[in-house]
Amino acid sequence: MINDRACTPLARTSYGETMTTSPRPTRESRQEQTREAIRHAAIALFVDHGFDAVAVADIAERAGVSRSTFFRHFPDKADVLFHDDSGSHLLLARAIAGAARSRAPLGDSLRACLEVLHSALLVLADTKAIQAIRYPALEQLIASTPQLQACSLVKERGYTDVMVEALIDQGAEPLIARQAGHVATACYDSGYTEAFHDPEQLSDAVDRAFRRLFALA
Asked: Which InterPro entries does this one have (predicted)?
């Protein structure tokens, strides 16, 4: 028996036909749409005119929003390019927890910590590669703009801190966790540099960097 209340509601057209009504967008989805509109506008303007020449007012006008709306979503124009970090941090922490499940507690084993981070960073690399393909000019923009390079380095330290804390949560000794976090960051950076002009290869490049490291042992 069909439960009518579980069915998608139908609306009747002027021709007497029925059609499925689209669900109303949620507040969260509208906010995400606004963030994406601002992000698209900012990247287009930065690429066309350079980061320094673009003001927040220019981005807001291009995105069709007010300055106050811009600042509700981003603290400054540089943050537009790095706004996904909180989600990426969560993804990385969960990937570490999953990879460590069969190895925990990690204790003082640097090798075990690095193997966990190897697996987790491949997950992150797949996500970052998708973003790089979606915004092909973004990485070149960051690489050519000193202020954005500085922001990128600060953000990179945030990823290292996430790795360290996640390893400690899995029973790693704090000193070993910090050493592993910095070594893993270097491996990711090596892969990023190798795949800079071909982001589809990022995951493979990061994997090769870790395997070169493990071959030393």
From this structure: Homeodomain-like_sf, HTH-type_TetR-like_transc_reg, HTH_TetR
* CA pair distance 101, 104, nearest whole angstrom: 6
Rounded to an integer, what distance in angstroms lies between the CA atom of residue 189 and that of residue 57? Answer: 34
Q: For residue 205, what are its two tokens? A: 């490049």
Asked whether residue 96 falls in the same domain as residue 47, the answer is no
Longest dimension (CA), the chain: 74
β-bridge partners, 11: 19
Query: 161 and 146, same structural domain?
Result: yes
The overall average pLDDT reported for the chain is: 86
pLDDT tens-digit map of 93-140: 999 999 999 888 999 999 999 999 999 999 999 988 887 777 677 888
Give the range among 1-10, 40-49, 196-205 with minimum mean pLDDT: 1-10
Q: Which CATH number covers residue 75?
A: 1.10.10.60
Considering its fold, how many domains does the chain have in total? 2
Domain of residue 59: give its range: 27-80
